[in-house]
Design goal:
single chain, 78 residues, Arc Repressor Mutant, subunit A
Length: 78
């Protein structure tokens, strides 16, 4: 389990059922006090792919489910 996977899980646990998070929220959580959170985005994207493959999360954009992580997306618990 990676730090990015843990960050995603933690943020989703804080949200009400059916609510989503933005991948950048997970990157910001990983960055902590460091303002350069964008350096963590590749880790977050890889973690999302892993969590999708494990059937733990789904992704969507503007309420429409996405089958692939491409372009903007939101993350939700399955």
């Amino acid at each position: 389990m990676t730090a990015a996977e843990n960050a995603i899980r933690s943020l989703l646990e804080e949200r009400a059922a059916g609510r989503t998070i933005c991948p950048s929220e997970a990157a910001r959580k990983l960055a902590g006090a460091n303002p350069d959170w964008r350096q963590h985005m590749d880790d977050v994207h890889r973690a999302v792919d892993t969590l999708i493959a494990a059937d733990e999360v789904v992704i969507s954009w503007k309420g429409e489910r996405k089958e692939q992580r491409r372009g903007p997306y939101r993350i939700a618990r399955r």
